[in-house]
Amino acid sequence: MRALGALFLLFACVLAIKPSDHAPLRRRTQELDIRTHNSEQHSEISLFPRAPQGGQGGRKKKECKDCKRCTGNTVRHRRKCRLCVPCPAKTKADPTHQSCVPQTADGKKPQDKKQRFDDKKKQRRAEFKEKKFENFDKKLGKAKTKYQSKQQQKKQEKEREKQEKERQRERERQKERNRERNARNQKRAGWCWAILAEGGAWVAADYEGVTQDDINGLTALWPEGVPEPVEAEIPEWVLDVYPKPVIEVPQVDIAGFAGIINAISKLFNAAKPAASEAFQALKNLKPAGRPSDKAIQGASKSGFVGKVLKDQRFRDCISATAGAAAAAGVAGVAQKSTEFILYDGETPYVWNIDFSRKKEDIFPSPANANGGKQIRVYDSTEEDGHFDPGGTGEHFTYSDYKPHRNRLQYERCNAVKTWDASGFTDNRISAIGVDNGCCAMYDDENCAGNSLLFTMANREDGNLKNKHNDAISGIWCTFNVDCTGRP
Length: 487
Known about the structure:
The protein is α+β, with helices and mostly antiparallel strands. The protein starts with a helix and ends in a 9-residue tail after the last strand. Helices cover about 35% and strands about 15% of the residues. The chain contains 10 helices and 13 strands. Among the domains are: about 180-330, no CATH class; about 360-485, Crystallins (Gamma-B Crystallin, domain 1), CATH 2.60.20. Strands 8, 9, 10, 11, 12 and 13 form a 6-stranded antiparallel sheet that branches. A 3-stranded antiparallel sheet has the order 5-7-6, with helices on one face. It has a two-stranded antiparallel ribbon with strand order 1-2.
């Protein structure tokens, strides 16, 4: 069976091969149609993609039935021959109205791209040569305009900066004028009239009807010919208010008119409560920086202001203070002083303004040192140790510069002979005591080191013996233990 199948397959293969397939290869190649360039037919290549006859790439276009005949500058649609479409700009329809070709003005054959570029370049060069001076003038004019505009902007900017600087200087000058005016009014308000008013120079009835304008105008009606005070307030070492015992002015920071009023009020609160009540109507009034014309006019008609300006004590006060200011820059001219008496009921108080007192002559104790305590030295000329508290034999250190009549100069030699007007105490002390510090006693008013008698700290001796009795002329005190630093 298998042999029969193989025989059948062989027979089929023999029948499938053509007789010519058994010919040699050479004969078969000769029978091939070999084509060369000579055997090809050449045709003209269309310059445009859409030729009148035939389609792109030599392909024949399908014939369109019932095609529409286009006219004018329209061509037949490429796919829909029944439609006509207009040619793009700078092109026109060919004679067959099947494609658009470039349009030329003279009807000549369109130039290629390079030729058109060269022609346009030549044309532009020619136009530039013809109009180069005209173009130069235009560009020069634009440049000049731009330059002038920039220069004008710079000039305007400099002018604005100059004006702003001038306005700033004017603001500074105005600020300085306001400051000087405010300082002048503060000086006028603070030196004399407020002190006199609080001291009781005028009764409470005088303050009735006093307005803010009156206070503002008072500072503007300073007597003519009187110089302005140098300082804003009377220096604390210049003003002395007493009788005995001395009324101590609490140490406060005086800042302007309100500070002066508060300080003076504190001065009299303990000793003269009635005066503070009488002055209550005036305490809340403050002079403004610049009194108005209305304020000045009102003050000139005010009975209270007139009384103040005519009061001899007020005129003596401002004469002393202003006189001191005028004499400050003149060598050899004695600085003036004055004093006046104000009463608290039946008790007279001496108000002394003395510019001969110098800040440099005052030696205060360190502020807040020793827990804020004062060194107290008390003495007696009696040998039995009977001290007189509150009398002339009691002196204290102070941390301010006020003219306390019982001041004990700190770490400075205190001459005993200056402790009373007659100098009676000098070399007559028989009993002495020291609180809150250490003091060295000397048999010399200048506290020379070789004249030291003894030191004393936080104790008293009611009966000095031998050479210590009736010998003390100078006293030096400090907070330091064992009188460290003494002469």
